Amino acid sequence: QSEAKTDDRTPAERIDDLFKSMAPRRKVLLGILSFVQEPQSAEAVNAHVDKLQQDNFSVYTAANLCNLLERAGAIERITADGQPADDTANEPKTVVVDGVEYLEATEPGQAKLDSDKPIERLRALLEEDAAYAVIYKRILTLCAAENGAATPTINGKVDNDPLVQKPRLYAPHFVDKLEQCDALEWRKAWFTTETGKQGLEMLADVVDESATDSKED
Q1: What is the pLDDT, as a whole number, of residue 115?
Q2: Residue 191 and which of 28, 52, 56, 209 are 20 to 30 A apart at CA?
Q3: Which residues sit opposite 186 in a β-bridge?
Q4: 188 dihedral zone (left: phi>0; alpha: psi -120 to 50; beta)
Q5: Alpha-carbon distance 133 to 131, whole Å?
Q6: β-strands 190-192, 75-78: how paired?
Q7: Which residue has the higher pLDDT, 5 or 75?
């Protein structure tokens, strides 16, 4: 009973479990994997993570997140010539080469990155939630403005719509779903991403009577 429990999960399973448990940090974790497709110094990774989180505060530092990815087997520390710096997958050691640490995505980490397809997730969302297509289009259009859209502005355009009365839903419900598809991002206001703009193309034939009435007024 005193023996440590063996982790029989594959790296892919550990990575999937990490992303499930760290769902709010999914985009940052993917950002790290994308950044270290080519070897990067730990210092560069830290700076990149700080940039990714500058408008979305987290108690997790770059070092915390990289350590979690390492333990899951998604990234590894390597030497200056590209060789693994440590053979122990579950307990990577900090290795410094000429004063510099290097990080690189592993094959399972790269596979996780390659499997992330926000356009497909967004298309599936819009198909499953077709009854609310007008709401999604309205939010994406609002947030496509040069300065994005503030939360109260979005709420004011959505919460009184007849579509969201029964069942009673509120704007944050739709914003959250769009953010999970990487169609929206928070930068001190909500902004429509390139993925979101493709979503607007998917919704091109959807007529928003509310938006039409506003223009006529």
Answers
A1: 92
A2: 209
A3: 190
A4: left
A5: 6
A6: unpaired
A7: 75
Residue 54 predicted with pLDDT over 90? no
Tokens of 31: 């950002």
Return d(Cα 81, Cα 83) in angstroms, integer. 6
Task: Determine contact, residues 14/21, Cβ cutoff 8 Å.
Answer: no
What pLDDT does residue 86 have?
A: 58
Percent of the chain with pLDDT over 90: 63
Q: Which two tokens stand for residue 62?
A: 């770059």
Query: Which residue type does 12 have?
Result: A
**Are the beta carbons of 175 and 139 closer than 8 angstroms?**
yes
Tokens of 205: 């034939």
Q: What is the dihedral of CA 158, 163, 168, 169, to 10 degrees?
A: -40
